[in-house]
Recover the amino acids of this structure.
């Protein structure tokens, strides 16, 4: 019987790690191994993990090196025919692995299966759905334009596909996953399970110190990918770069407080539109632009009063 290795990097993950582990233990397929890479945690992560009574659970502790290295370390320990990655605060539906495995078995030429994602808060309550894509087969051009996966907890990957592309690149964290999916898409076809099965947790922890690094590394992944791209894909370059700046607009607005965040987000959005003016026809971008204009017009106190109103109207980026 084919087995699945689930790799979970964990760094100071005491708040959610047991809930995450439970979502794996409740999978409707049982022939799995759960590989926890403790990435130098200094909290109660390992202590909590040791309370889990499940022979499928394997814990390996290392000095802190970041999520990309932790995933690579997990791969070296994996013995399964398929590998799935799960972040230590995200959750899966109970049929996630079963349906993705069935999709890959039905499409032996495919190396990667993916499903749809929704966002949850720190209480595991639903926030909104991620965009639902149906790309299958050769998805390289679609991934080149946009990382439609959205997070690292989504795919199930054949071990052969993993072996064919090597390790995650730790030098481009926190966007090493986009680079990795691109490398897989260059060699393997993808298959979709059209069902929401991944629950991505949005944390209130500020990412403001990481946004500049994210911007730098997103552009680096973009530039490296287009250097290798076939000539017929070069026309997608500005569209891809524009989507990066649109993403940075959202990240700046969500994670840099007050008018400073709005100012940075406005600059990023203007860059995105200059690169791809057709973005202005996108309803999501129109809403975002309206929100930014209003935030810049309103005083700080009035902006605070409107926060709930904006969240209600603009929280779902897929609309």
């Amino acid at each position: 019987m084919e087995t699945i290795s689930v790799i979970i990097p964990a760094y100071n993950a005491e708040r959610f790690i047991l809930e995450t582990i439970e979502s794996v233990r409740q999978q409707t397929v049982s022939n799995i191994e759960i590989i926890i890479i403790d990435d130098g945690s200094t909290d109660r992560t390992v202590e909590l993990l040791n309370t889990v009574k499940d022979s499928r659970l394997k814990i390996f502790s290392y000095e802190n090196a970041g999520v990309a290295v932790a995933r690579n370390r997990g791969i070296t320990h994996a013995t399964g025919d398929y590998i799935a990655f799960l972040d230590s605060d995200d959750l899966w539906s109970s049929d996630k692995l079963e349906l993705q495995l069935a999709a890959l078995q039905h499409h032996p030429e495919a190396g990667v299966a993916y499903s749809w994602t929704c966002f949850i808060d720190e209480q595991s309550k639903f926030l909104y759905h991620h965009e639902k894509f149906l790309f299958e087969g050769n998805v390289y051009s679609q991934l080149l334009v946009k990382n439609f996966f959205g997070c690292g907890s989504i795919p199930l990957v054949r071990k052969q596909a993993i072996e064919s592309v090597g390790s995650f690149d730790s030098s481009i964290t926190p966007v090493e996953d986009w680079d990795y999916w691109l490398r897989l898409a260059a060699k393997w076809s993808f298959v979709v399970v059209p069902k929401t099965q991944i629950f991505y947790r949005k944390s209130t922890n500020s990412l403001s110190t990481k946004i500049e690094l994210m911007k730098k590394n997103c552009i680096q992944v973009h530039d490296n990918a287009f250097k290798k791209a076939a000539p017929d894909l070069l026309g997608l370059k500005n569209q891809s770069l524009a989507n990066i700046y649109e993403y940075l607009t959202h990240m700046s607005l969500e994670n840099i407080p007050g008018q400073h965040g709005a100012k940075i987000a406005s600059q990023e959005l203007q860059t995105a539109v200059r690169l791809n003016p057709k973005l202005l026809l996108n309803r999501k971008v129109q809403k975002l632009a309206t929100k930014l204009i209003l935030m810049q017009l309103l005083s700080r106190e009035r902006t605070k009063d409107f926060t709930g109103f904006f969240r209600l109207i603009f929280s779902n980026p897929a609309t």
Notes: The two ends are 42 Å apart (CA to CA). Strands lie at 4-10, 32-39, 57-62, 82-85, 91-92, 110-120, 126-129, 156-158, 189-201.
